[in-house]
C-alpha cells in the first residue's frame, strides 16, 4: 500500500487570517485541529485538506506551485475574483499578458493563484481547486505517481499530471524552464503512511523511488521531512 495525501500545507506568518481568506474563497469549513493546527476540511470526498502552519520565514520570490481555481461561467469567474479581492487578495502580474483569459491573484501573504476561465477541458470535473500546478521535470510527476499510487493523466512535452483514481484536483508539473528555488517551500504535502503501517518502511520505499531525507530529520512530533526529486519538500507523518 502507498502513502495517502493527508493535506496540502501552507506556511504562513499568520495562519488563522490566511485560513479565513481561503475558507471564504473556497467555501470550506475552518476547524482548529489539536494535532494539525488550522485546517480547512475537504468540501467533498475527492478533495484534500488544507493545513496552515505557523512560520517565521518570509516569502521570497514566486512560489513554485499555485492553485488553479475553476469557473463554471464567466460570471462565476468574476464572482470568485471579486470575493478574493474583498477578502484581502490582490491582482498581480507574473507575465500573463493583457490578453490572458485567466486571472492571476495573490492571497494576503502573497501566495499566487489563478482563477481559470470557463470551458477549460483539462480541468473539467476536477472540483473547485482544479489543479495544484507546479514546476518540475517529468521525473517529479513519475515519483509522485508511484509515491501516492495516482495514475499519470498527462505525460507529453515534458509536462506531467497525476490525479487520484477517484477524481478530484490534478497535480501538475510544467517541465522546463524551471523557476529558481529561493528558499523553503511555502506549499508542501503531508503524507500519511498506510494505516497500521511502519513509518520506517515507508521512508525506505520513498527513498527507493528517488526521495531524499532532509537535514532537519524528525521533528518533535516524530514527523519526517523529505524532498522529492527536484528538491521540493514534503512531510511524512507518524502512523495513527
UniProtKB/TrEMBL annotation:
InterPro entries: Glyas_Bleomycin-R_OHBP_Dase (IPR029068), Glyoxalase_6 (IPR041581), VOC_core (IPR037523). Residues 125-239 form the VOC domain. Transmembrane segments: none annotated. This is VOC domain-containing protein.
Amino acid at each position: 500500500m502507498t502513502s495517502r495525501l493527508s493535506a496540502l500545507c501552507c506556511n504562513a506568518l499568520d495562519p488563522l487570517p490566511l485560513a479565513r481568506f481561503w475558507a471564504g474563497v473556497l467555501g470550506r469549513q475552518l476547524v482548529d485541529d489539536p494535532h494539525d493546527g488550522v485546517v480547512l476540511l475537504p468540501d467533498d470526498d475527492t478533495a484534500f485538506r488544507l493545513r496552515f502552519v505557523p512560520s517565521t520565514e518570509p516569502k521570497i520570490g514566486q512560489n513554485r506551485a499555485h492553485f488553479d481555481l475553476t469557473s463554471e461561467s464567466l460570471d462565476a469567474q468574476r464572482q470568485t475574483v471579486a470575493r478574493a479581492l474583498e477578502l484581502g487578495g490582490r491582482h498581480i502580474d507574473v507575465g500573463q499578458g493583457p490578453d490572458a483569459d485567466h486571472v492571476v491573484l495573490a492571497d494576503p501573504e502573497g501566495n499566487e493563484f489563478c482563477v481559470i476561465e470557463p470551458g477549460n477541458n483539462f480541468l473539467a470535473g476536477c472540483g473547485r481547486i482544479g489543479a495544484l500546478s507546479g514546476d518540475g521535470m517529468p521525473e517529479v510527476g513519475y515519483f509522485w505517481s508511484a509515491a501516492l499510487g495516482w495514475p499519470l493523466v498527462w505525460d507529453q512535452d515534458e509536462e506531467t499530471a497525476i490525479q487520484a483514481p477517484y477524481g478530484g484536483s490534478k497535480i501538475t508539473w510544467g517541465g522546463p524552464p524551471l523557476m529558481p528555488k529561493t528558499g523553503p517551500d511555502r506549499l508542501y504535502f503531508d503524507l500519511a503512511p498506510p494505516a497500521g503501517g511502519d513509518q520506517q518502511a515507508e521512508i525506505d520505499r520513498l527513498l527507493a523511488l528517488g526521495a531524499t531525507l532532509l537535514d532537519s530529520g524528525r521533528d518533535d512530533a516524530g514527523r519526517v521531512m523529505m524532498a522529492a526529486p527536484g528538491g521540493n519538500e514534503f512531510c511524512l507523518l507518524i502512523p495513527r
